[in-house]
Amino acid sequence: MPSPTSAGTQAAGRPQARRTQADRSAATRNALVAAARGLFAVQGFAEVSNDAIVAAAGVTRGALYHQFEDKTALFDAVLDAVEADIARRLTDAVAGAGITDPVEAMRYVIRTWLDICVEPEIHRIALIDGPSVVGWAHWREVCQRHVFGLAQALLLGGIELGRIRPQPVRPLAHILMGASDEAALYVAEAADRAQARAEMIRVLDGLIDGVAA
């Protein structure tokens, strides 16, 4: 019969074992997402095989299918990570620039977005493959989950400060996000990206001028 001390030690050890297994599972998942993210950015979803993903992640095919139903489910996780990074970078850019005026913050966000949209993983994963792989409706849901809040906050702040004319915020945020995504595609796929960026900034600045008080 085990002593009270040994029984207590065993009982205390069980949660630790579960935590260790959870940590291992999370590490495997993170490795797969990171590996797939790099491969999808360079080669595109259709050209990346499951074997290439598990080799880059240093795991087995069994580990891949334990974490994700299929390659599309893995891409969905990658897309979510990319969109989360986009939202963080846009928020950090405004905060780092010390911009407090909501209208000028909107202009700065757009300029930052048109700078980073040409990066391979954002261009390929978020703009090109995203809608076709996970479907347009889910792609928009992922985008809005991360970035829509930033757009709404800037618009609400502008209205509260009298810098933006009072109007329904949610539909306006949809319009501005849609225009920004189209602008990003235009810039990323242009032969002369610098010229395309300048053109789109003028157009989007005009949209912002139209809603500013």
UniProtKB/TrEMBL annotation:
<feature type="region of interest" description="Disordered">
    <location>
        <begin position="1"/>
        <end position="24"/>
    </location>
</feature>
<dbReference type="Pfam" id="PF00440">
    <property type="entry name" value="TetR_N"/>
</dbReference>
<feature type="DNA-binding region" description="H-T-H motif">
    <location>
        <begin position="49"/>
        <end position="68"/>
    </location>
</feature>
<dbReference type="InterPro" id="IPR050109">
    <property type="entry name" value="HTH-type_TetR-like_transc_reg"/>
</dbReference>
<dbReference type="InterPro" id="IPR049484">
    <property type="entry name" value="Rv0078-like_C"/>
</dbReference>
<keyword id="KW-0805">Transcription regulation</keyword>
<protein>
    <submittedName>
        <fullName>TetR/AcrR family transcriptional regulator</fullName>
    </submittedName>
</protein>
<keyword id="KW-0804">Transcription</keyword>
<keyword id="KW-0238">DNA-binding</keyword>
<feature type="domain" description="HTH tetR-type">
    <location>
        <begin position="26"/>
        <end position="86"/>
    </location>
</feature>
<dbReference type="InterPro" id="IPR001647">
    <property type="entry name" value="HTH_TetR"/>
</dbReference>
<dbReference type="GO" id="GO:0003700">
    <property type="term" value="F:DNA-binding transcription factor activity"/>
</dbReference>
<dbReference type="InterPro" id="IPR009057">
    <property type="entry name" value="Homeodomain-like_sf"/>
</dbReference>
<dbReference type="Pfam" id="PF21351">
    <property type="entry name" value="TetR_C_41"/>
</dbReference>
<dbReference type="InterPro" id="IPR036271">
    <property type="entry name" value="Tet_transcr_reg_TetR-rel_C_sf"/>
</dbReference>
<dbReference type="GO" id="GO:0000976">
    <property type="term" value="F:transcription cis-regulatory region binding"/>
</dbReference>
